[in-house]
Amino acid sequence: MEKKEKWLRTDDIAIELGVTTERVLSWIISGILPVVDFDGSGDYRIREKDLRQFIKKQQSKTVMALQQVKAQIEEEAIVFENLYEWMQEENKMLSRQYQNMDDCLLQVLEQYKESWEGSLSAGDKGKAQAYQEAMVEVYDRWEKPKQEYQQWVMSHEKRWQIFIAQLGPMLETNAGLMAPADPYLALNMSQIKAASTMDSYVESKRHQKDLYQALYLWMKRENNTLLEHYKKMERTISRVIDTLQRKAKKASKTMDFERGQTYQEAASLLYRQWEEIRNDYNRHHLLGHQRWNHCQEKVKMALSNNRSFSSQNDSSNEEGRMVSTFDDDDQEPESI
């Protein structure tokens, strides 16, 4: 005996699927859920077979949507991971440039001191006084930006701990703190194991992406501050040179040519030392576009490898992937 076809109301579907009646009506109005209105009153009826087909289609779309979300989050994690690594390299280079600038001033002070001592030994008090004034000028102008930089470096650990505290739950699933040799590598990223469900896997990848994004932004902020300190040091050296040159001109106007020449020699010495450091920085700056292109190529290669791996993995798991938990159409479903 042929089984009687079962018809459902919108309220029945809403209760069965755990959604509101308005949600069911929106599916009907959009045309994705087939219905029949027998008397034109809006009292819709839905065949149970059509409902099962609708659920299958929606579940297939959900699987595809989750795959797209998973792929997007994985690629964003790759992008931010590479951006963070690139920013780390930029930080190391900029720190080295600042240290070179610092060493430059130390060497100039040492040379000024040797010239001062040599002038004193030769009994040339005017020349000795000029080198002494040059040393004082360098030290006085260098002291403040030097102290500001040292304070910033010493507060790194505090800034890092504040940053870690702000990360919150991301660290609980994806990373653990350790005592690093490099202070900018203070996170030990754990390997994300295969998750038992798509939701937990996507969530793990989302945490990884958010973590690398936060690390990248933190490092970018640190680099901007470091660049500001470097620029301060450049302005300091420029002002010292201007001051020494003004003193040279002033001494020449008073016919104190030997002293004026000493000021000029001191300014020239500092300028030559600074020019070498500045040229190195300019080369570093000009190569920035090349380094950025290299970073982009690295990201593209990582994305390509990830997509290739994902495609192979999807193909191998296609038969085992569960698309629907419902029975076939020719089987009697449970009563709603």
Q: How much helicity do the residues have?
A: over 70%
Gyration radius from CA atoms, angstroms: 36 Å
Strand fraction equals under 5%
SS elements, strand count: 4
- The gross shape turns out to be rod-shaped
Task: Note down, in words, how this protein is organized.
The chain is mainly alpha-helical and 336 residues long. It folds into 2 domains: 7-61, Multidrug-efflux Transporter Regulator, Chain: A, Domain 2, CATH 1.10.1660; 67-316, no CATH class. It is 76% helix and 3% strand. The protein has helices spanning 10-17, 21-30, 48-121, 125-154, 156-167, 170-174, 198-253, 257-286, 288-316, and strands spanning 7-8, 46-47, 175-177, 187-189. The strands form 2 sheets. The protein has a two-stranded antiparallel ribbon with strand order 1-2. Helix 3 packs antiparallel against helix 4 (125-154), helix 3 (48-121) runs antiparallel to helix 8 (257-286) and helix 7 packs antiparallel against helix 8. The longest helix has 74 residues, at 48-121. It is rod-shaped, with a radius of gyration of 36 Å. The two termini are 21 Å apart. Mean pLDDT is 79; it is low at 173-197 and 319-336. This is Helix-turn-helix domain-containing protein. It comes from Heliorestis convoluta. Residues 326-336 have a biased composition (Acidic residues). Residues 307-336 are annotated as: Disordered.
